[in-house]
Amino acid sequence: MRMRTTRLRTTPAVAGVSALLLLTGCGAADMTRQASPFANAQGAKTVTLSVQSWVGAQANVAVAQYLLEHELGYRVDTVQVDEVPAWDALSQGRVDAILEDWGHPEQEQRYVEDKKTIVNGGDLGVTGHIGWFVPTYFAKRHPDVTDWKNLNKYAEQFRTPESGGKGQLMDGSPSYVTNDKALVKNLKLDYQVVFAGSEAAQITQIKQFAKEKKPFLTYWYTPQWLFEKVPMTEVKLPPYKEGCDADPEKVACAYPHTPLQKYLNADFAENGGDAADFLKRFTWTTEDQNEVSLMIAEQKLSPEEAAKKWADGHESTWKKWLP
Amino acid sequence: MATITAAAPRAGLPGILRHRALRKLLALALVAAILVPLAAARWASGSWPGALTVDVSEPLGRASDWIIDNRDSHPLFLYFFGHVSNVVVLAVRAVYLALLAVGWAGVTAVAALVAWRAAGPRLALGTGAAFLACGLLGMWVPTMQTLALMVVAVAASVVVGALLGLAAGLSDRMHRALRPVLDTMQVLPAFAYLLPVVLVFGIGVPAAVLATVVYAAPPMARLTALGLRGADKEVLEAVESLGATSRQRLLTARIPLARKELLLGLNQTIMMALSMAVIASVIGAGGLGDRVYQALASVDVGAALAAGIPIVLLAVVLDRVTGAAGARLGEAPAPHARALWLYALAAAAAVAVAGRLADALNWPDGWVVGIAEPVNRAVDWMTAHLYSGVPVVGGTADWAGHFTTWVLDPLRDGLQWLPWWAVLLVVAALAWLIGTWRTALTAVLAMAAIGVLGVWKPSLDTLSQVLAAVAVTLVIGFATGIAAARSDRFERLLRPVLDVFQTMPQFVYLIPVVALFGVGRAPAVAAAVVYALPAVVRITAQGLRQVDPAALESARSLGATSGQQLRQVQLPLARPALLLAVNQGVVLVLAVVIIGGLVGGGALGYDVVFGLAQGDLATGLVAGAAIVCLGLMLDRVTQPTERRTKKGA
Prior knowledge:
The structure holds two protein chains of two kinds.
Chain A: H1 2-8, H2 11-24, E1 46-51, H3 55-70, E2 75-80, H4 83-92, E3 97-101, H5 105-114, E4 118-135, H6 136-141, H7 151-154, E5 167-171, H8 180-186, E6 191-195, H9 199-211, E7 217-222, H10 226-229, E8 232-235, E9 257-265, H11 266-271, H12 273-281, H13 286-297, H14 303-313, H15 315-319
Parallel strand pairs in A: 1-2, 1-3, 5-6, 5-7
Antiparallel strand pairs in A: 3-9, 4-7, 4-8, 4-9
Chain B: H1 13-42, H2 57-70, H3 75-119, H4 121-136, H5 140-170, H6 172-187, H7 191-201, H8 205-229, H9 233-241, H10 246-257, H11 259-279, H12 287-297, H13 301-328, H14 337-357, H15 372-386, H16 396-417, H17 420-434, H18 437-452, H19 456-486, H20 488-503, H21 506-517, H22 521-545, H23 549-557, H24 562-573, H25 575-595, H26 603-614, H27 617-638, H28 640-648
Helix pairs in contact in B: 1-17, 2-27, 3-4, 3-5, 3-8, 3-14, 4-13, 5-6, 5-8, 5-11, 5-12, 6-8, 7-8, 7-27, 8-11, 9-10, 11-13, 12-13, 13-15, 13-21, 16-19, 17-18, 17-27, 18-27, 19-20, 19-22, 19-25, 20-22, 21-22, 22-25, 23-24, 25-27, 26-27
């Protein structure tokens, strides 16, 4: 590492640097500590939260934002970024906190252990679980579909034009944690993993299937508000054991149950004052989160309205979070 | 009948062409006869041979790690990128704060009055109405954020583009060096730019602005160079004979003569920047694009539309105002032009001050019309009733299924079944027939590069989607274009529709498309068709309308029916325009097929999305490079005729 650094430091870099130094006449500019140009526009204290693309994450952020703004007098900016880039942005201080992380060992090692630019902010209170799901109306008619050993029997019924003669296992956004390709191969299933490419596309497709009561098999996760609209039953995969997913090529077991974590930028955790304390204490249940998610996704309330509605009804819960 | 075409002098052309085409094909066949058996014997596989690929994931992964580890300490970042980033943030912030300080009334007044002076009273009204509509939709602050970002990005693009264009316009060597670069950049889908910029600058506004500049500067550079090179020789000679120095010549003759092209360049740059403003929301640009993107996440088409409409309005207004300003250039200035400008500025200032005094800088909360709900109801109704079970024609889901099974699958499997050398051969033949041996070589090399990068199969998958989408686009586009060229009323009706679809952010219709066609390649193709159609319709209609009236007149006097006129006079004479339409269609379709990775299009688009989402430089950059090569190849296979005529002109 050191070697490469010195080599790259030479000529072109030096030329560019000196030119710019002449131009600006000032010293180093660390762009990793740089706020958004839209922040602090009215001269308030600002917190920037990362929103991931799924609605559960939006619910966390909406409630945190509402309380920070109305109880603690902060101004909150939100940035929608995918998970891995969000870690990077958190490390740079472009965002102050991620409220729901599903486990990124590689990033934890790099930023929390090695660079120490990010600190763990404690449990969110919600336990996440990824799995394979079939609609409950289908599982009721064919109870044995909920065991992975019988999946091949139903491959025919799960076929779509995209799955090329095999059954379709629908996966979602490329940003999500998934072993599905390896699972299909290692469990010798007659299925094709079809990537919907985004959660929005996946939800839209699930709803269309459900409207017609068609069978489908999908990668999905709990807690998720969609279960309230389209009841789904999990297909049992070979049980999860510690370390059975260590080699991504050889995975042949279910996904673990993950207590979702909050992460804060290290600087912010130390100097963030009330906002940082508040975010560290922020913890709620799956039901709470689903309630807000449903208001956003199904009743199409704006996140702010949904958060207000929830906060009005659960004062005892959030009073404990205030510093 | 064909003999009466006005293009009598061209009558000999097809003969020569056929002859030349035959020669080219023969030469190619000869080369192939020697090379193919060799290649096939050495690397006998249908797909691209593994021995000829280079695995770049290792070094790319290392590069990415290095950047992340050194971003906050290495001098290159501290003293160069850091300052670039700072300047961008400061500039955007300054513009944003200025816009907020002027207040909504002030911004609207300034915009309307500038439009009035530059383009006339009707556009002024339109501009004012557009800004008020942004506020009414509850999007005032995001609109200002996007506007701030746009102002900085467009200014930077214009400066960079004009400098490059100046260099290319004045020096032949620069021109030769820059042209291939600019050509390539023009066919690059916006999505392919994002990852490298994000890696260096991180998520946020600086990355978004820089990606926008890279995307929007090339048209400015091209048109500046074109304008400078196209200046009237006689005028220049006259100026020279008056003893002007070369600098004076440039300032007093060449640049003023190129005004039209410069304004057109500005117009194009603005349009490109606006379309990028939404795509850049994936990397944290904020503003309207971010609203669209967040609405997409909760499958809220209405909210996405509410944020998409301001973008459309901004685009249409800016397009019309710069366009009208360009059209007015030749005219003599109005008698009191300067005084009127002063009045306009004074009036705008008065409105801004009044807004400030009345303490009404922010858009009033009460004045917001919620369109999200009715729109969502309409979309729900549409998807519920069209998705399946429609009598006789079947639902959209069935169409999508049939399209996938009967068109996309055979096309993909066919392309992937072809031996790799056969694909290269076909590309070479097509490119050479339409262009020169140089374009053929570029196309073949681009295609080979895809193989070397090790993404042969997904690239052919993407190619099959592009081909299918282009075919659909051309059939619908030519038909509509012909109809528009023949009926003024139809064209007038069509124009706003085309404007809307050309500028509507693609993200807005990704969800309805999935609701109609399900997840997979079919919705990606559908979105691409929607996006590429307006350009194809426009170019076709324009080309048909510009056909020499004398030729039409003579055909009519000989008693040709209108169908015969179309087939035998208009279409052949509009051939360059039709070819341009094909080329534009291909480039636009490719851009959206890539975005189709978000709705299950798979292939290269998915890889790019994956790379962005996982910060995986190896996957994302390789896919991005393959897209570039694919775009280059498709462009070379469809375009050169147009380029040659331009050079001759």
